[in-house]
Amino acid sequence: PLPAGHIGLAFESRYGLRTLRDCAALCRTCAHCAYISFNLASNDCSWYRHCDLDELQDRQGGYRSMRVREP
Questions:
Q1: pLDDT tens sequence across 34-52
Q2: Other CB atoms closer than 10 Å to residue 59's CB: what's the count?
Q3: CB of 33 within 8 A of CB of 70?
């Protein structure tokens, strides 16, 4: 499971994450996780309790973000 809090990071190499779907599945194991951003090249599955997806500035760089559940 993910560490408790309002924001976190799960390294792909530790959790075996290969896709946005994998990152979302890991997010669902934590009650505080509602949004994710994923980038395989950066070894990054970041999770958040709150996020305004419309306000994201950089949708480039290989990151994909999504809401996993209602916060």
A1: 999 998 888 888 889 999 9
A2: 9
A3: no
